[in-house]
Structure formats: C-alpha cells, structure tokens
Amino acid sequence: MKFQQLGTPYGEQELWDSVRKAMMDVADWRKQLITGTLTSDQIMQLKLKITQKIDWGNRKLGLDLVPRVEGEMVDPDAVSVVELHRVHALSSEASQSHSQGLGTLAKRKEKRKVLSHHLFFCMRDFSYHLGEDAEVYFSLYDSQKQKFISERFLVKLSKEGFSNYVEKIHSNCTIFTDLGSGDLVSDLYIVAHVVRVGRMLFSESVKKNSSHNYRRPYGVAVFRLVQTVLQGGDGEVEVTGKLFTSDEKDFWQLHEFIIKKQTNKCNILSNNVSYGLVVSVKMVHGELEQATKENPLLLKNVCVTKKLGFSDVIMPGDVRNDLYVTLNNGEFERGGKSVGKNIEVLVLALDADGHPLQCIYSGMGHEGTTEHSSMIMYHNNSPRWMERLKVAIPIDQFAGAHLRLEYSHCSTREKNEKKFFGFSFIRLMDDEGGTTLRDGSHELCVYKCDERSRLADPMEYLTMPYLSKAAADCVYSLPFQRSPKEIIVVDTLLCSTKLTQNVDLLSLLRWRSAPEGIGETLSRLTRVDGAETVKFLQDVLDALFAMFSTDDGNSTQHSGHVFQAMVFIFSLLEDSKFEHFKPVMDAYITGHFAAALVYKGLISCVRHLSDLCPQTEKQEPIMRCFRSLEYIFKFIIQSRLLFARATGGQNEDSFRVDVDSLFESFARMLNMNLENIEASQMTLLEHLQGTCDQLSRVLTPGEVANHINTLFNATPVESSRVITRAKLHAMKNAVNSTIFDDDEGRELLLQTICTHLRQHLDNRQELTLCADVLQDIIILTHKHTKRFPSSKLPATLHQDIEEIMLNLFNVLVQVILTLERSAPSSGASTLKPEAMGLASTLKPEAMGLTQLLSALKTTFVPTQASLVLGSLCVNLSVQDDIRGSLVASLMGILQLMREPHYTKLWDAHMISGIHHLRHLLHSTIVLLADLVRAAVFPSDWFVMRMVTNYTILAAMQEIAQPLIATFLKQGRFDNQLWSSYLNLAVGFLTQPCLQLEQFSQQKRHKVLERYNDMRVLMGFQILSMWRELDDHRLHFIPGMVGPFLEVTLVPEPELRKATLPIFFDMMQAEQQAKGSFKQVETELIDKLDILVSENKGDDEYRQLFNTILLEKVRSDDPVWRESGTAFINSVTRLLERLLDYRNVMQGDENCDKRMSCTVNLLNFYKNEINRQEMYIRYIYKLHDLHVPAGNFTEAAFTLQLHANQLSWTQRMLHADHLYQAQTETQRKELIYMKIINYFDKGKCWEQGIPLLEELANQYRTCLFDYQKLSEVLRRQASFYEKILSGKRYDHEYFRVGFYGLGLPLFVRNKVFIYRGLEYEQIGTFTQRIQTEFPQAKMLSHNTPPDDTIRSSDGQYIQICAVKALPEINPLFDGVEVDERILKYYSNNHVRQFVYDRPTHRGPADKENEFKNLWIERTTYTTEFELPGILKWFEVVDQRMEQLCPPQYACETVDRHNKQLKQIIIHYRANPQDNIQLFTMRLQGTIDAAVNGGIAKYQDAFFGPDYLVVYPENADHVNRLKVLLSDQTMILEGALDLHGRIAPSANQPLHKRLVEVFEGLRSKVRKMCSTPQSQRSTSSLQSTPPPPPTHRRADSDPATEFRRTGSIINSPLPPLPSDKGAISLSSSSTSGHSSQRSSQSSSLYAHFQSGSHDDDIYAKPQEWDGNLGVQRDSRPRSAFISDSRGSSPKSLSKSLNNDYMIVPPPKLSDEAHRWRYSRPPSPRTARSSITQDSANSLWCDSQGSDESLPPLPPRVGERPARSISLGGEEEAPPPVLPKRMGKKCPSTAMFGCEQLLGDGVDGLGYSGGGLSNGFPASTPGTPPLVSPRNHRTPPPPPIPPKAISTPLTPLSPPTGFSPNTSAEDLTPTTPTNINLRNLDELHHNLLENYSVPPRLQPPPPPSP
User: Fold this and answer.
1) Strand boundaries in 880-1013, DSSP class E
2) What is d(CA 1219, CA 1201) in angstroms, rounded to the nearest whole number?
C-alpha cells in the first residue's frame, strides 16, 4: 500500500482513522502469515483478505486500481482487453466494499446466497444461589411469531453453584444451527428457563438432603439478539441478564411478560451481586461443516442444538428422524381434596414390546434417557408446563413405538411416596396407512390406574383409543376406565427425512397395489409438500417412469399425467430450498435410471406442448415444461444412450428426425407474434442452452449449432423487448457453451450471432446485452489466438476475426459515436414535458453535480429538480457502463486485428465506393479522438488505459496507410481527414495518462518496460505523416500550429528535437505562399500563452526552441532569415516571461512575483508584438492581483492602461467575460468609474480628479447627461475635500537589490525601488521580502556586492531605506499653495531616490569621528514613476557623490534648528500641554551629555589648521558657524517660553538650563569671533530678551516650501557673480551638478569677478536696475539667498536649504509682484510617515514629511552627562550618522534622527528630538503654520553694491530699533533683543520660524 500524507483539519479524521485501522489490520495479518502455523486454505483466505484490504486502501487514497484474479494480479498481455475491462469492473466493485466477499475475481462467480446461519452460545456465569441442583434450559424465541424456533440446550448446575472449569467449558456451550435468513430479521431472543431440582418447598433451614428430586419452576431470563450480533462480528459478544419470577401458573408465559415489559406480572429475582446470568454469543454463516473449519477453536466438539423443523436448505445427505413432543397443559380432578394436586408427568418412550427406548432428550448437551419427569406446579389441578422434549426413535423401531404419560401426585412430605393415579399414551404411526403422527396438538385421554404393574404389557392399552375425540365414539368396553373429565394436551412436530405424514405420497409409492387410483394419485401429487417429495425423490421417480410407458416403450393412458408430475418434480429443483437436490437428481440419472425406451415419449410430450402453445390460454404448464427442459433432455439423452447401448445404435436416424421435428416446432412457436405466448417464448429461449448441451452428447457440434441457429433466425428482430432480451441471453449462453469451442460450431454460430448483433446495434436495442455477447465472443476468440503464434494463426481463426470485424466494426463505431454525442435522456417517465425536454438537451456528462442541479433549478422547483437530477444521474451511470463495455469491445476487435484484417476492411469498404471508406476512416478517427480526449474509463483504471492506448497506437499506424495511399497520393487530398488524424495524434500524445514525468520512478519504469514511451512513438508517427504532406502543409496553417506546439511542449527531449523543426516547415510554407509567416507567428504566440499557463513547457524547452530553430534558419538560410531570427528570439523572450509567470502562480507569498511577471508580459505584448487583446488580458490579470492585496492605487493605474486604449466614440465592442456588448464610450466610462473608485480607496484623490474632469466634460459637451454630470461634480468636490481633510499616510521607499544566479530571471542581478505598504517599516518590509524569497540570504551591509556574489548560484538580497526626491512642478510657481496640497507631491510621482552611506577617509579619530565623516550619497532613477502599475520599479540609472564632513554637519544642525522652531510654535499655541518633551529637548540641546556637544565641532572644523588643510571646505565651515549662531537665538526664545509655561516643580531645572545656556552662548560667540559687546548681556532670569525682530529669509513664501525637505536631499545652487550680489560658494548636493567656488574667504561673502556663467544669477532679467531708492527708509538688512545667489525665481527651482546673508537688491514693483506670485515646486515637500513613526512624531493632520529612524530612543530616557571641554558647558555637536549594525546611542542634543536612522539608511530626518518629544497623539497640536497663512511682507530694500559691507554673524543691522513695527521688519541677521511683550514675540516667531509639515499634528484616529 502506497503511503500518502493525509491532512485532518477539514473533516479528514474519519478517513485517517479508517486507513490507520486498515494498515494495522494488514500488519497483524502479515504476522499471522509469517508464523507458519496456518493451513494452506487459511493462507489462501488470508492472502485474499490482505489484497482485498490493500485494494480498499488504494481506492481510499486515490491510487491506481490493481486488477486481480483470485487475489493475484492480472497480466495484461495474457488476457484480452475485454476481459481486462471486466476484471477492472469487478475489482472496482470489490474495493468499494472490502467487507463483502473475496472481492477481486476475474469471472463473475455466481454469488451463492448464504442460506444457513448458526449462533454459537456459551453460558459464562450464573451468580444466583439456589441451594439445590438446578437445570438451565436455553432456547431461541421469535417474538414476532411468538414461538420457540430451536431445541432446548441444557446446562446442569450443582447446588454448590456454577463452575466453569476448563475441562467443562464445552458443557456450557452449544451452537444453534440452521437459522434461516428470515429468522435473522425477526426479533430473536435467547430465553433461559431455570428449574430447581430438589424438595417440593425449599428452605434454607433444612440441611438434610431430600430423598426426592422434584423439578420445580424457579425463574426466567431473556437476552435480546441485536442486529449487530445477528449479522456477525469479529468476536464473541457478552450479554448479561437478570432472572425474573412470577406466579407458578404463569411460568409458561413468563418470558413473554419480560419481553413485553409487563412488570405488574413479573418481578426481578434479587441477588446480592451486580450481575446475574452472563452469556456470550457469536454468529457464523454458511454450512456448518465449513463454519467449523473456519472457527476450529470455537466450534470444535461443541454440541449442536438444531432448529425446530427443517432448515431453509435440505441437503441430500441429511438424515434426521426427530419427533418433538411438547407437554402443553392438563386438566385433572381434585380427588376429594380441598387443595389442588402436585401433579408430575412421567414421559416414557416404549417399543412395540413395551421395552423402554433411550431416546428422550429434555435438552441438548446431555445423553438421552428412557423417561422424563415434568415440572411440578404446586397445588395446581390445571397445570401448564410447555415443556418440549425431543424423542429420537431409530427409524427401524418407529413403526411400533409409542409414548406413555404417567401421572402421579407428589406430597410435600419427605416420607410420602409419589401416588400414581393414571396414564395416557400416544401411538407414533398409523398401522393402516403407514403414516406418522400428524403435527399439531393432540388431546389425550386420561385412563385411571393406581398400579404401574398393570402397564407392563402394552398390548393391554394400545388397543384403546388414545385421543379423547376417538374415545368419545368408543362403544365397546375398555381394559382401563377413562376419566371423562381429565385430559392432557400434547403438541407434536416431526422432522424426518425418512418418514412421511402425507397419504398422497404414500399412495403414489404404492401405486401398484391400487392401479385404478393412479389418476387421482397423480393429480394429488402437486399438492404434496415439496419437502416431502424430495425426501423420497428416487422412489417417486421410479414410480413415475414405471407408470409413464409400458415395457415395450409404448405410452399408457396415464403418460400425460405422469409427464406433468415429472415436470412438477423437476420444477421443484429450481427452488433455492431444494437446489441442493440437483446432484441427487444427476446421480439418479446416471446411476439408477434404467428406462431405455422413454425418450420417444418424452420428446413427443414436449413437442405436443410446443404445438399446443399458440392454441391455449393456459401457458403455465407449458412454461413449467420449458423451464424443465434441461432435466427432461437429460432423461431423453440418457434413455437414448441406454437404448443405443442395448441395441448397438439402432434407430439413430429416427432419433434425429424426432429432434428435428421438435426444433421445428420450437421455431414455429418462436416465429409467432402473439402476446399470450410471449412468456412461453421467453422461457424457451432462456432454457434452450441446457437442451443443447445435452444434445451435444449425441449430436455433432455442427448439428447442434444448426438447431440453435434455426431458433435464433426464427425469432424476429422486431420482436418485443422481452423476447429480444431472451434471445440475446440465449446467444450469450451459446457462446459460452462447449459448442463454441469447436471450429465448426463456432463458425456457424458466429455468422448468425454477428448478424443479429449488427441488427440490434443498428436499431440501438439492448446495447448492454449486445455488448455482453460481443465481449464473450472476443474473449473466447482471443483465447484461441493465444494458442498459436501471431504469424501462424489457423485459417479458421482468421475467418472468425474477419467475420467479427466486417459485421460489427463499423456499426460499433457508429453506436459509440452516438452515445458520445447524445445526451442521456431522463429516465423518469412521469416528469413534465419541459423536464423531459431539458433532460434531453443537458449534457450531464460534461457538468458537475452542483452545476447540473443549478441548471435544473432555473426551470423546476427544488423537489422536481432533484427528481430530474436523480433520473439523469442514474441514466448517466447506466450509459457510462454501456459506453465502457462497447469501447472495450471495440478495443478488443482492434486488438484481434492484424495487418491483413485491416487491408480486408479497407478493401471491403472501397468496393462500395470511396465515400464509404472515407466515412469509415473519419468516423473511426473521430471516435478515437473522443476516447483519447474524454477518457471513458475511470482515472484509477491505469492498466486498462495503457492497454487501450497501446491498441489505439497500433490502429493509428494502420489507419495511416489508406490516408496516404488513397487520400493523398492519388490526387484526392482530403484536408478534413488529415486534420482529424493529426489532431487525434496530438491528443493521443498529450493525454495526461501518458505523461510519465508525473509518475513515480517505479511506475514509470514498469510502463517503459512494457509499452515503451508511446509519446515518442506517436511523435515519430506525426513527423512521418507531416513529411508525407509536402506541398499540402499550407492547409494546416494556422490550424495545426497550436496542436503541434502542444506536442513539442511534452517534456521528452527526443520528441522535442524531432518535432520542433515542424515550425520551421510551417514558416517556410507560409512565407513561400503569402510572403510572410504572420499566421504562424500569431497562432504560435496565442497558443504558447495558453499552454504555458497550463503548466506545459520548461526552461529546457525554451533553450531547445531557440537553439533548434535558429540553427535551422542558419543552415537553410532562407530569404526570410532576418525576420525569422527576430521572431524566434521574440518567442524565446516570451517563453522566458511566461515561464517566470507560471513559476509564481501559486502561493500568497508569490503575489509580488506574479505582479512582476504579469507586467513583463503585458509590456511584451504591447511593445514587442503589439497584441492588444493579449495586452488587455494581462492588464486584468494584474488588476486581479492588486485588488485582493489591497493595492487599490496600483489597480487604478493598471486599469488606466486599458482606458487609454479606448476613445470616446460610439463604436460597438463585442462582449467578453468581463463586459457585455457596449459602445466604446460606455466601456471607457465604466472603466473610468472603476479607476476613480480605486483611487478613492487608495487615497490618491489627486489622480482621480483629472478623470472626473474628463468625465464631466463628456457629460457636459458630448452626452449632455446632467444627472451624471452632477454626480461626477459632487464626487470631484468630495475629492478636493478629502485632499484637505482626509487621513492618509505617506509610504516609505526601499531599495532592494537581488543578486545571484539562483534568483528568477526577472529579478536576477537587478535593483528595484519598492513602495512600502502603509505603516510598513524596514523591518516588516524585509520580513515580507524574505518570505517571498525564502531561499535568499540577506546581506547585512549596504556596500555594492562584488562579482563573486553576482555570479554565484545562490540568492542574495540587499535592502535599505531610501528617500524620495520629488521633481519640480512648475504649476505651483507664483501661487500660494496650502501645505496639505503640496504634501502629496513630496512623496508621489517620483522617479529619483537618494540613499546616504557614511564613510571615513583617512585615519579614524576615536575621540572625534566628525573630522573625517564623509557621506556617500547615491541617487537612483527608476524606470517609471511611483506609484504606478506596480509597487516597485527597476532602477535604470544611479549616480553617486560625496558630502564632506562640514557639509553634512551643516545639514544636521540646520535640520535640528527647524525642529526647535516647530516645538516653540507648538507650545506657544498650546501652553497647557505637558512640557516634559519640551524640557527634554532643551536639555538634550543645551546640556548635552553625549558626544561632547559643540566642542566636537570646534575641535573638528574650527581649529586653526582645518582650513589650511581643507581650504575647499571654508564655505561649509562658515555656514556651520552661522547655523550655530542661529541655534543660540532659537534656544534663547525657547528658554524664555519654557520659563513662562514650566510649572514650579520644573523651575529649578529651568534655572539650570539657563545657566548652562549662558556658557553655551558665550562659547558660540567666542567660536564665531563675535565681540561680546554686540550681544545683550541682560539676564534671562530677570527680563527675557525680546525675540529677533528681523525676518529670516527662509520664512519667505517663495522659499519656505523648498526648505521643508532635508538638506541632504537638496542640491546647493551655483555661486552668484559679482554683479550686485555677495554670495558664499557652495558645493552641489543631492546629485545636482553645480560649480564649486574655491575663491570664497569671507565668513559671509565676498565680491567675485564677473563671469558669463554667473551673470544670470547676479542680475536676473526681472530685476530693476535701480538699487538705491529705498535705502534711507529702511534699515539696512541682509537678503537671504542660497549659496549661488539665486533670485527667488531661481530658488523656487532649487532643492537646497542652504542660504547666506547678502545685501538684498531693490526690486521694482513689477519685480516685487513677480517674486511673490511664483509658486514653489510641489515636489520638494517629502513625507514618509510610517506606522512606527506615527507613534513618535508630532505632526499635522497630513502626516510628517520625514520618517523616523528605525529605532527611536525611549521617551524620558535620561542620558548620561559627559564632562565638557574647557570648563564651560558646551553646545552639543550633531550626532554621528549611524553605521550599519551599530546601536543607536542615547538621546543627544539633536535627538535621535542624527544617529542616521535616516541619514544612513535613507534621507528621512524624522523628527530629531521629537522622538524624545511630542507624540503624534498629543492633544492640542497646532495646525499647519506656513508663511502662506500670513500676510506677505513687502520685499526688503536692496542696498547699492558700492556701500555694501560684509556683516559678522551676530552684528545687528544698522538702524535697527526695538520699536520698529512688525510691518517694517525685514529679515536680518539674528541679534539679541529684549522682548516687549509676548504677542510681539509670538508674531515674530511665526514670521521668522515657519513650521515644517513634519511638525504638524496628525489627524485624530478614526472611530
């Protein structure tokens, strides 16, 4: 048994348990086999049992069926395919119910009904204590018939109690035999009667033993036999019962009280134990002798308790002579006493001389006795005993024997003896008639007698009447006085095979004594019970044949009656009850029958009845005669043989004449079409074979065959169905007779039978029987052929095969085709007409039950639908059996046929015309194609399928001959025939059961060993036929492209190599005929897509396809070589994509792979071969992948590909599986609505708005559908609202590199940018990719892998986070745009992404890593924008640049400054919020405990030697100083705010922060070389200084948006020229090229010589040349510019956040308006909120612009303090970028984002200290604060270049006054100014420090 894995979660537990039990059973049986202790019969039975269980297990596990004959596997080569089909059918039936029979037998053996059943019984325990001896009688009781059906079994118990010693075990056991099947279905009980043997009245106090042993009733127990016991189980079943008691007068019916549960009439007999009477039972079946052999340990030496009466089967050898006497009841006189008598009845069996016979059995299990004492009913004159005795008198003593009943009164006193007072007797046989006592009740006379001695001579009383009825009529005196008022009733039952109670049967046996009464005797014989007749079968037959004819053979006057009596007796043997007497009859015929002259009379009687049949209405005698023909002819033939033996063979011709005349009479009767004789005709045909078998003993097989043919031909073909069925049965019997084994007889029968079969098949009559007859013919013919070598078949066998072939082949093909094509009709004739119509049109064989029932329910109510379904299923099952039998028959004929037979078949049809041959070939090919395509046989019939395929393969090789010879070479090319043949060949080759790769190695080896690879054989056959076509190949283009492609996809290398060149031939043929091979190309691509998706083809095929066809093109060098090569390469690429797609079709983890492969395919179909229908097909495949995955935005972009293929026209489009037939406009509108819904679900409303506008325009201007227009406009308005108020979160982006040759081709050694899922961080994303590629190894570093990894066979994946680099959108130039609108574009519609990786140059300084910390910035460009039709796209370009250490430090400090500004704004608006986060951020910035503070920057970049060594970094060092100075200004305002809102508990800490800040500020001033006198020294503790009143340039509306992104992601602008501007030189960043100036030396700026390149920056076209108009009206201010000196317009196109202070030029009004009207680029605002960062960021409702680092620090963690440098508190430097694998340090001044959670893995600076600061859910978070929300101030004045002077970082502007109004403020350098009031501080903070989007609060969570 093959083991398979069984799953149990979904209801498979039962299967698991059953298979496990079967395996354990097989293991146990194997142990029994190897012990070697079993007999040969037991071994055979056990082997059959094991194979049966294995077959059952194979079926349960869905494995192949093993055809077996008597447990042994069948050799398919040794049997016909028809016989193999039958074996499969029987094996399948046996495996379905392995518990029935032996299962797998080759021939359908007659299932002999088990008529005998036996019940093994054993009393296991008796827990009651009686105190005296006891008798327990067990018997079977039928509660339905209310009678006992078995003898009694007796168990005697001693007064000591029940003993169950081993040596006595069999005394407690018996077997109740001969139970019939009818007994098992009744309510059977085992009734136990317990009788106490001892004193009349028992008393525990009396210890003395009694001198009398009276039998007294004690109790009754009842055990019900349930059906599980009666059907027979694996072992004995124990049953426990309780004893019940009742009044003694009701003891005889106590068991009925118990069964009927009449508890008021009976009581449970109490005992002190929990159990009572324990018995065990086991049912065994079959003959007792066989059952004993099968259960030797159980049944050996066990006594037999027989059934009352005969069993259902009377065996000829049974000898039984049992008389059962039941003491029923009696009536006795009181005899003058006041109380009733204690009456005991003594029963004796005596012979004629009065000698006692030891033949009385009160119960089985003990020896017989001469007498039996009844139970005594205490003081009861009307006792009722119901005691049954068995009287087994020997047959020779039965005639004179009688029974005597003696009555005594028993006293309760021990001393008193029994008082004898009377007797009765009964004779057992009638002296006059010789018959035994009749069964039934007998009322006996009671004769008075007080002395037993008077009974010594039986003749004294035997002359008296013994029945009370006879005694009443007696008039003469009697020796004994009869008591008229006393009677006793006894019941008798005789079971004897030697004695009869029938007078009629006795008179027949004694007919010679009264010959005048023969007629009456014969007429009464039919009324005699059959059991009585068969018991005296030999004597009866002797008497009948003696009466049938005289001694000289002449008939007598009673011959007719005698013949009827014979027929009656013969018909008895057909009864199953007497079928075992057939051997007795046969033995009588061969051994005792001696009537040599009766054959003439018997033939005459049969002929007379046959002639009389049409003339009489009484057909029953005739039918009885026909049913007995076999035995009649046995006597006829035996009589003839006796006569021939006695006379030397005289009168032979006379006998033949008599037989001929008899068959002629039969033929005349069969030829009549009369309804009243149909039954007789059917009976004759059914029993014809028995007659013919007997005739073959005296006639030749040819003569008998002629007689049979006479009857077959006499039966009309158009006869009724019953006659037709009878005739076919007769034919089947004739085929299986010995006549068919003879060559002459077979030839004669075969002609007639084949002719009749053809006629019935043509008329579609009785197809099942026709198939059975034909199968028998084929099986026998095949057996005859196996006797000879294939090349030496005798002529007779050749002729037989031709006879079968010519008569039946064509018609068989047509019938099977009809069955294949027609639908089964409903078998329910009571259905409505519409039900019949639907049943005739449905194709149930092509539908599942669920589909079929659904189809029916559309027409009928459920009840009627179920009825139709049941009828269809039954009909379908029957039709499947018929079709299978007919197909097996056809295969059998093909298996018999050799090449000469095929030639004979073609020639025979060619004689009738070529169209006949064509029709035959076409029908055969179509049928074989149907058989190959829709397998007729079940899938587990593997052997049958392989033999069928081998037969079809041989037939196809023969069919090819007339195709070539007749329908190709003679100018009669038939395209249809050839196409059908080639399609058949392809279907044969590609059928599933021939795909050896799917088999186990052992199974594949066996198939190859027996059949070879039939696919290869058929492939070469196809190739041979293709070569024959030559110039006709064009007819098969494009029709055969797909089939041939399917052939080449079969995974067999030799087959592929042989058949792939066919495509070259097709291309060549089409090219020569049409100038191109477009049809081949189109069909090949279409079919390739379908076939590969069906799991056909592999990478080996792709290589072979490319290699073989390219080699063919190169070698033949056709004119179309170039186009052919391109086409082959294109198909190769398509194969690569299709195989990739197929390899990822299964599994949820492969969803992303499926999407990639789908995109590859749709791009191929669009770009390479322009196949729109295939392109659209894969669009929807991609769509169907996106939607379940929740990728609604990508699904929308995918559907948009289809929408782009459509136009707004009224062109009609055909319907498909997705859309109904509709106009192009309607379909595009429908697709647009789907796209809009997906954009809405994906929160990509910006993309849905253009579609809504397009729809609105169509509704407004073309369709004029204002209703839909209004809906679209409302939808559009809702999208705008959602943009401002909707909740959406930005996605992270990840760079994923796939390296190694072990990866699929579509990702191998490629880099992709992935768009993460919502809230997906890098850890979750990495886990998802790892799940998708479980075999891949994750690279722990982000350095580019070397060639070793790329070329290895492994799989490697490298993942890191990247930051989106948005593109500039000119649409927003000059426009004030809400930050919520711009936020979307910072993270969407991007193609460029950056990744920063920290590196060190030179020796590392362990004390200060900032000195040589460089940033390697890589910019990736993807093939398409994200989001798109995928969540990832391949990187098509990448660039790398380096950021020097001070440049990166500037970015870090600038980012931290912006975060501080946002915190100030938040707490200014929400002073009631918890300030813990505010305090922590200030403490981490001012009192840095980690990384050494600003001292690290001072040590790294501000030393005297740094600029000497790195003069090119001077610009960055100067800018770093400015940023640090700005930080002190921001901290000053923050401390002021903190001091006002901090609670009293935090004031000590605040004071500490102020003290530390003073030291920090002084250190910054000293570091930046700023005179101390220029800074206010007012104490923060007394009066907070006013906020800076200047306006920062970075708060300008035109530049604010550009600075919200990280500096790392922003390029530095080019240097300005010296034409009116002073600028700092800066190196370019973020991958944007710019010129780097090496001429900068001043801290702020210096004049540079003009250059042509820089002129556009120094003097833009839009600027006014008048630069000094407003100089006196405004204080001199610094204009904030980028390091390139760009104008606001040019700045709007820059992504850099760097700036510098330059003298602002004066603008004209026009220039001023232009400057503030240009919108910023929407692509500069970047956001990447993730789920993890959302919990740690404080952001607005639109989400943050930057992502958190992967591991943010814990909130509230107090960092360890470090010792500051120089004895002063130092400001902390920016935190080092995090290296891969290095743990993030504790919170520092710049928070945690500087630890390169983003700076390394990506570019997201996700909140710095806000990871220590405000959570996203902080209540009261302010809304977005942007410069666009406030009034735009006037532009600053631009001083003349001539007087423009450089400013120091902390010098206040000239003319600055604290009283300057806010309206007059312009951006200037930071200065220390005392605050006048809080409102002014708030206003100026808002003006100078805009809140980046990343500090805006998140939206409240959805409910």
Assistant:
1) none
2) 16
Residue type, 1352: S
CA distance 955 to 10: 47
Q: Measuring CA to CA, which residue among 1260, 1085, 1257, 1081 is closest to residue 1178?
A: 1085
Closest CA to 979 of 915, 1058, 925, 1047: 925
CA atoms within a 13 Å half-sphere pointing along the CA-CB vector of 1236: 22
Long-range contact set of residues 1826-1830: C-beta below 8 Å, sequence gap at least 24: 1826/1378, 1826/1379, 1826/1600, 1826/1890, 1826/1891, 1827/1595, 1827/1596, 1827/1597, 1827/1600, 1827/1887, 1827/1890, 1828/1376, 1828/1377, 1828/1378, 1828/1379, 1828/1597, 1828/1600, 1830/1886, 1830/1887
What residue spans of 355-510 are helical by DSSP H? 459-462, 468-472, 503-509
DSSP assignment string, 644-678: HHHHTSTTHHHHHHHHHHHHHHHHHHHH---GGGH
- CA 1840 vs CA 1671, 1836, 1844: distances in Å: 8, 13, 6
DSSP string, 851-864: HHHHHHHTTS-HHH
Mean pLDDT by 10 residues, the chain (1903 residues): 45 77 88 81 83 83 84 86 89 64 40 71 88 93 92 91 58 88 83 93 76 90 85 78 92 93 88 80 82 77 88 70 93 83 93 90 92 93 93 87 93 84 90 75 92 88 86 74 90 84 74 72 76 78 82 76 87 80 84 84 90 88 90 90 83 87 92 89 91 90 93 89 92 92 91 93 91 93 88 88 93 90 45 44 47 56 56 61 90 93 92 91 93 86 92 94 88 89 93 89 90 92 91 89 91 90 91 88 86 85 90 85 89 86 72 82 84 88 90 94 93 89 93 95 93 94 92 94 87 94 89 92 92 90 89 94 88 79 88 91 79 90 93 92 90 87 85 90 78 76 85 90 91 92 91 90 78 36 40 37 36 38 35 35 34 35 37 36 36 35 39 37 36 36 36 37 36 42 36 35 36 37 38 41 36 38 37 42 43 41 41
Radius of gyration of the CA atoms of the chain, in A: 57
| Beta carbons of 717 and 756 less than 8 angstroms apart | yes
Distances in Å between the Cα of 1814 and the Cα atoms of 1398, 1735, 1818 are: 29, 9, 6
The CB-side HSE value for 793 (13 A sphere, CA atoms) comes to: 22
Contacts 24+ apart (CB under 8 A), 287-292: 287/116, 288/116, 288/118, 288/175, 288/177, 288/178, 291/118
If DSSP codes are grouped into helix, strand and coil, which group holds residue 1211? coil
Closest CA to 1625 of 1474, 1509, 1519, 1712: 1519
Task: For residue 329, count other CB atoms closer than 10 A to its CB.
Answer: 14
Work out whether the CA dihedral 1531, 1532, 1538, 1539 comes out positive or negative: positive
Angle separating helix axes 767-785 and 81-96, nearest 10 degrees? 120
CB neighbour class for 373 (10 Å; exposed up to 12, middle 13-18, buried from 19): buried
What does DSSP say about strands 1356-1365 and 1337-1338: parallel, antiparallel, or unpaired? parallel
Strands (DSSP E) found in 143-207:
147-148, 153-157, 173-179, 188-198
